[in-house]
Write a structure and sequence with these properties.
This protein is mainly beta and 131 residues long. The chain has 1 helix and 8 strands, in the order αββββββββ.
Length: 131
């Protein structure tokens, strides 16, 4: 009797874990960034990778330019906590001019290399609009 109970307990736990960790099925062209790889609408290349202008939505959202499935060029990345980065990206990383706004509304602008602000600009020197 204990064996049957443990089998049901393990089966129930496995089903619960599978439901909690399920990833939405991807729709549209391939996007390399896992946090925005869910639904993609926009231009694609010959290999069905995001290329040119597009919007990718997963846990986070990115609207802007892609190159061979990778976030590359100008864009707006919005994290699930509400923080944003609007500016230049290279090979999936913040790179160049941009504005980072944290989830509390604090704004940093200037030149970025990855997550590092390497040259800060005075407040409200930059503006960024992604269409």
């Amino acid at each position: 009797m204990k064996t049957a109970y443990y089998q049901w307990a393990i089966l129930g736990l496995t089903a619960f874990m599978a439901a909690c960790s399920s990833v939405p099925e991807h729709q549209g062209c391939y996007v390399a960034e896992p946090y925005v790889n869910g639904t993609y609408t926009g231009s694609c290349d010959q290999q069905s990778r995001a290329n040119g202008q597009g919007v990718a939505t997963g846990v986070d959202t990115y609207k802007g330019e892609f190159k061979s499935g990778v976030i590359h060029g100008w864009g707006l990345y919005t994290w699930s906590n509400g923080a944003t980065f609007c500016g230049q990206f290279s090979q999936g990383n913040m790179a160049g001019l941009g504005i980072y706004t944290d989830s509390n509304g604090n704004r940093q602008e200037g030149i970025w290399e990855g997550t590092n602000l390497v040259q800060a600009y005075q407040a409200n020197r930059l503006s960024c609009t992604i269409r």
